[in-house]
Amino acid sequence: MRTPPGVSPSDFALAVAQFQAAVGPDWVFTSDEDLDLYKDAYSPFWGEPEEKIAYAAVAPQTVEEVQAVVRIANQYKVPLYPISTGKNLGYGGSAPVLSGSVVLDLKRMNRILEVNEKNAYALVEPGVSYFDLYRYIHERGLKVWIDCPDPGWGSVIGNAVDRGGGYTAAMFRNHFDAHCGMEVVLPTGDLLRTGMGAMPNAETWQMYKSGYGPWIDGLFSQSNFGVVTKMGIWLMPEPEAYLNGTVSVFGYDDLVPFIDILNQLENGQVFTGMPFLGSPVFSGIDPGDQMRPNNDPELAAILAAPGGPPKEALEAHSRKVGKGLWAAKLQFYGPEKVIRAQWEHCRERFSAIPGAVFEDGDLLRFPLAPDQLVNEHKVTFGIPNLSIFFIGARSETSPPGDGHIWFSPIIPRTAEAIFEAQRVFRDAADSLGLPMQPIALPSTYWQRAFIFIFGFPITHDIETNKKNRAAFRTLVKIAAEHGWGEYRTAPAYQDDIMDTYSFNDHALRRFHETVKDAVDPNGVISAGRYGIWPKHLRGTRA
Ligand SMILES: Cc1cc2nc3c(=O)[nH]c(=O)nc-3n(C[C@H](O)[C@H](O)[C@H](O)COP(=O)(O)OP(=O)(O)OC[C@H]3O[C@@H](n4cnc5c(N)ncnc54)[C@H](O)[C@@H]3O)c2cc1C
User: Fold this and answer.
1) CA–CA separation, 191 vs 516, rounded Å?
2) Where in 303-393 does DSSP place strands (E)?
3) Beta strands in 440-534 (DSSP E)
4) Which of 330, 363, 446, 468 is the most exposed place for a label (fewest CB within 10 A)?
5) Is 464 a domain residue?
């Protein structure tokens, strides 16, 4: 058996024996066959010595077992790497940041402790997947929806602590923002409850977020300050109906008033569904459409123009083929009368842009029949599924690949920022030899900022991966020079990205490290995650 960095073989053997005593021998894994399952299937280090690998894994079932494992880890200074369901593909999978760590696999802690229909929340353990929570709610006929990311096999807790996002109404799409109250095993093994949960017998743990005093929940997201063992999540009351409508405009510069109106309507909560942005002339506006671009040779010639597509040519082509150059699909949830009036109001507001064209979409009532769902993006209705792997990673137009890493910078929510980012990333892609959609549009998960999401290919060719890693790092720097930071990242790039959050001589990182030293003096939890290294490893940032 290999031993984690800095741990002697005899200490590691003792630690493993004590892990076995704490959780039962069946739930400690040390064989290569078992540990291979904890590799990152989308690793940019595939086949290289830097590949992140676990030297053991331990799967407790109770909070007390988690505490025992953490205490043993402290005794022998064994690095642990907690995961919930470990499906973080594109952002690191289930592999530890520090090779040789012991993965603390929380999948077996899969109890749904409460679903409160009246007050629309759930309290879950880390191993509860979106499928589990949906099934629980569905089987009991409860009138609440979950909000889930595209892949439904991930976990409510793992996704939220990594600050992931979903697709229903705005106040539920940001999963960390939608959480309410946590239970955390601290790196010393002590147990903490946040928010109202700090009060014994609290009656409002999942109803009021901040509790009393500094609100510390953020310290347990994208961090390594503890192991989250319970979390509350706010659910969406099932709406009476759903409606969508599409607005298209044909002028290149129309995007400026278009985004301004979109923002005013969204910030004023005239619509709360996710407003998909797209370019119908180029592809479409539904998820995945950008991966299926139009093959029109005339359009291809315009897009291939040196220095980027000329806007007059794009406009002329868009008018000729009768497809908008820019469009948004607005989505509404609520009582039929209300959402029809909201859509009507949106139409009035967008009519200020000359030539704007409107298309009424479907009005749906719930529950939906299976045949109504066939062509729908199911997560819009809080229904977990795995069809994204068909849309994005395996289809007629996209043969099976070896995965991808997400490059996902946050940019301002203005048309000017979109134009600038398109230009900057197009030029960067040209000079780095990367494929890039010529008029890529950002995603709208979050209300106040855009997020560009580019899937950076992973291959099983080491030289190509090396080249792509260098290109990724260059893109991170280029984005930072423009004031655009990544919202989340895989371990391979976490230090590069933390380096860009450098205001006042890296005051943020220095603060993280001060907290790390205070709460995790032995540095046993997720060493290096999000660029926070324990003291003894700070000289060796990966
Ligand atoms: C094709 C495709 C589409 C995707 N679409 C989306 C999407 O729409 N939205 C989205 O958000 N993501 C998306 N992802 C990324 C990813 O698959 C999901 O975010 C997934 O839910 C994360 O995996 P998980 O829930 O199993 O979390 P985990 O892998 O269990 O956890 C994620 C990270 O959080 C930390 N962590 C987890 N649990 C704990 C804990 N209990 N205590 C302390 N720290 C913990 C660890 O650092 C871990 O690495 C997509 C990925 C792919 C490949």
Assistant:
1) 17
2) 326-334, 357-365
3) 449-451, 454-457
4) 363
5) yes
Q: How far apart are CA 142 and CA 125, in angstroms?
A: 20
- Please compute the mean of the pLDDT values over residues 66-71 and round it to a whole number: 98
Measuring CA to CA, which residue among 167, 165, 127 is closest to residue 145? 167
Q: What is residue 291's predicted lDDT score, i.e. its pLDDT?
A: 64
Domain end marker among 78, 107, 136: 107
Distance separating alpha carbons of residues 524 and 235, to the nearest angstrom: 34
- Asked if residue 34 is part of any domain, the answer here is yes
Give the residues surrounding ligand 1 with Cβ less than 6 Å away: 82-92, 94, 106, 126, 149-151, 154-155, 157-159, 161-162, 164-165, 227-228, 388-389, 392-393, 526, 529
Q: Tens digit of pLDDT for each residue in 332-344?
A: 999 999 999 999 9
Q: In this structure, are 250 and 360 located in the same domain?
A: yes
Per the structure, the count of domains in the chain is 4
CB atoms under 10 Å from CB of 231, counted, come to 29
The average pLDDT across 290-305 equals 81
Q: Which residues pair with 115 in a beta bridge?
A: 122
- Domain CATH number, residue 102: 3.30.43.10
Are 452 and 413 found together in one domain? yes
The CA 14 to ligand 1 mean position distance, Å, reads 32
Residue 433, pLDDT score = 86
For residues 221, 23, 232, 227, the Cα torsion angle rounded to the nearest 10 degrees is: -20
Rounded to the nearest 10 degrees, what angle do helices 415-432 and 462-481 cross at? 150
Domain with residue 433: its CATH number is: 3.40.462.10
454 CA to middle of ligand 1, Å? 17
Of all protein residues, the one whose alpha carbon is nearest to atom 18 of ligand 1 is 88
How far, in Å, from the CA of 245 to the mean position of ligand 1?
31
Share of the chain above pLDDT 90, in %: 85
Q: Which domain holds residue 330?
A: 241-368
Those residues whose C-beta lies under 8 Å from the C-beta of residue 108, and which sit 6 or more positions away, are 27, 59, 60, 61, 127
Q: What is the pTM of this model?
A: 0.96
* One domain, residues 155 and 228: yes
pLDDT tens across 100-152, in order? 999 999 999 999 999 999 999 999 999 999 999 999 999 999 999 999 999 99
Is beta strand 102-105 parallel, antiparallel or unpaired with respect to 56-58? Answer: parallel
Residue 464 to residue 511: CA distance in whole angstroms = 37
pLDDT over 80 (residue 40)? yes
DSSP assignment of 31-78: SHHHHGGGS-TT-TTTTSTT----SEEE---SHHHHHHHHHHHHHHT-
